[in-house]
Amino acid sequence: MDRSASICKSVLDVIGNTPIIELSRLTKVLDGKILAKMDYLNPGFSKKDRIALQMIQEAEHSGALKPNQTVVELTSGNTGTGLAIVCGIKGYPFIAVMSKGNTNERARMMRALGAEVILVEQAPGSTPGTVSGESLELVEQETNRIVEEYGAFRCDQFNLNGNFNAWYLRAAREIIQQTKGNFDGFCDFMGTGGTFAGLCRAFKEFNPKIQCYVIEPINAAVVAGNKVLSSGDHKIQGGGYAMSNLMFLKNLSIDGALQVTDEEAYAITRRLAKEEGIFAGPSSGANVHGALQLLKGPLKGKTVFVVLPDSGLKYLSTDLW
Q1: Cβ(80)–Cβ(117) under 8 Å?
Q2: Which of 153, 238, 239, 309 matches a 20 to 30 Å C-alpha distance to 40?
Q3: CA 244, 248, 249: angle at the middle one, nearest 5?
Q4: Chain Cα centroid distance, residue 47
Q5: How does pLDDT run across 245-297, given as a tens digit for each residue?
Q6: Distant-in-sequence, close-in-space partners of 277: CB < 8 Å, separation ≥ 6
């Protein structure tokens, strides 16, 4: 929906259609361009508003979600925020289950939007402020328990097609229209895999020459075929869970895998704020770092597209700022 075309009936009408910015200041000494879609400008300050709306709409259409039924999902905070918004407007009680390794801002925002938030202890030995695959598994176990207890609908972002479809059917169309298809590469920090898979599939159908790269934490680069080091702990919240069996990656053509350290992601996130006026989270820094790697290597002189997933406001309590 065109945000400026009319008065919207609800905040759901302004999910999507976010602007794309050329990061010309970060690339001024490089040969090439980076185009960044500012998806942190969605109502919940993240790209996950898109999948929250798509998954709930598809569940309603199929009958999997009944009127007034409780919705439950594990989250790092962004999908939960999107679901809190969508469920609040549509009248479904929502329970978010989240690791204590995620930031307090996310839990507070979900509660403010009407969600019940259940916080799960990190896996033994985990570094505070990180979420490893082991910690995520503990959240998964608690989520399944709550779903059974409440007879709830599990809005499973790792497996429901609505996650993929939000990007493949909707966001990709926006991006191609906005850019007129004038980009050569795409890279994305891996969380559920829905964003990467949906956009990769759509981009390659539009133009098979567009190269698509996964981005992973350097100590949890399983798509690249590396061993998980130091329990896979890292500070880039919302992804990097060291899961190579993500459903959305099946039968997908991936051109390569890039690695990023916490320090690299943080450094670019800070540069985005200072040099581009873009106050985003560390996964945005990871994505832009990956794009800069590509412009210095296989896509020198080309144009790379990235998504900026969430807002820096969700990390004010961390050492990022």
Answers
A1: yes
A2: 153
A3: 50
A4: 6
A5: 688 888 898 999 999 999 999 999 999 999 999 999 999 999 999 999 999 99
A6: none
Place of tokens 């759901």: 12
Angle at which helices 48-62 and 78-90 pack, to 10 degrees? 50
Cβ count within 10 A of residue 197: 26
Amino acid identity at 59: A
Contact 191, 238 (CB under 8 A): yes
CA–CA gap between residue 203 and residue 195 (Å, rounded): 12
pLDDT per residue over 115-158, tens digit each?
Answer: 999 999 888 877 777 766 778 889 999 999 999 999 999 999 99
Hunting for tokens 């929906």 — which residue is that? 1
Parallel/antiparallel/unpaired status of strands 116-120 and 153-154: unpaired
Rounded Cα gap, residues 59 and 65, in angstroms:
5
Give the global pTM.
Answer: 0.92
Is there a contact between 58 and 160 (Cβ–Cβ < 8 Å)? yes
| Rg (alpha carbons) of the chain, rounded to whole number | 18
Give the amino acid at 230: S
- Show Cβ contacts of residue 99 under 8 Å, excluding neighbours closer than 6 positions: 76, 119, 120, 122, 131, 135, 136, 138, 139
- Strands 20-22 and 33-37, bridge-based pairing: antiparallel
> Which residue's entry shows tokens 């328990």?
145
Q: What angle do CA 303, 222, 123 make, to 5 degrees?
A: 120
| Domains of the chain: residue spans and CATH | 11-43+171-315 (3.40.50.1100), 48-154 (3.40.50.1100)
Residues marked as catalytic: 48, 283
Cα-to-chain-centroid distance, residue 123: 23
pLDDT in tens, 204-221: 999 999 999 999 999 878
Q: Which residues contact 60 (CB under 8 A, 6 or more apart)?
A: 90
